[in-house]
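dumping this here so i dont lose it
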């Protein structure tokens, strides 16, 4: 039997994992703040009221290049002055921006939370929406790209997570 002292220390184990109860609290909290692209797409595709509104926090030029169908366009800089006219405080908001390299959705979520909205951030943003093969709207109409096999299964309805 290998003891803790006998285990090899490496960059992963140098700081040991949190105790299970602390990990459950942390990851449960994470899910209260985040939704992923596949879950948002599945909720929207189910039809009817998904129980949330999707908000694109990018610029008008970015919005015109493509956006999630049915999303509300509200750039982060305009949230304080326009959110009340566009959003219902009783409906949760899921924010997104370009992708994982951009914190625009995080800044938009913070601005909305400070105004009293229930909010989650869509992990992966518009980049992963497109990379996972979901349809999107542009100024020219609806479009879709093939799913990137590194981000979504090619021959399955979902990733199984």
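and the seq i came up w/
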């Amino acid at each position: 039997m290998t003891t803790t002292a006998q285990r090899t220390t490496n960059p992963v184990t140098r700081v040991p994992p949190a105790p299970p109860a602390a990990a459950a609290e942390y990851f449960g909290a994470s899910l209260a703040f985040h939704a992923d692209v596949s879950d948002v797409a599945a909720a929207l595709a189910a039809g009817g009221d998904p129980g949330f509104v999707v908000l694109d926090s990018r610029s008008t030029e970015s919005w015109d290049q493509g956006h999630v169908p049915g999303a509300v366009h509200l750039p982060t800089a305009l949230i304080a002055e326009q959110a009340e006219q566009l959003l219902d405080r009783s409906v949760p908001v899921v924010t997104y921006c370009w992708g994982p390299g951009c914190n625009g959705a995080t800044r938009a979520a913070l601005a909305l939370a400070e105004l009293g909205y229930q909010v989650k951030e869509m992990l992966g943003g518009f980049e992963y929406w497109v990379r996972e093969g979901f349809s999107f709207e542009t100024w020219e109409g609806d479009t879709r790209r093939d799913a990137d096999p590194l981000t979504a299964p090619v021959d399955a309805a979902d990733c199984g997570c």
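Residues 54 and 103 are 16 Å apart (CA to CA).
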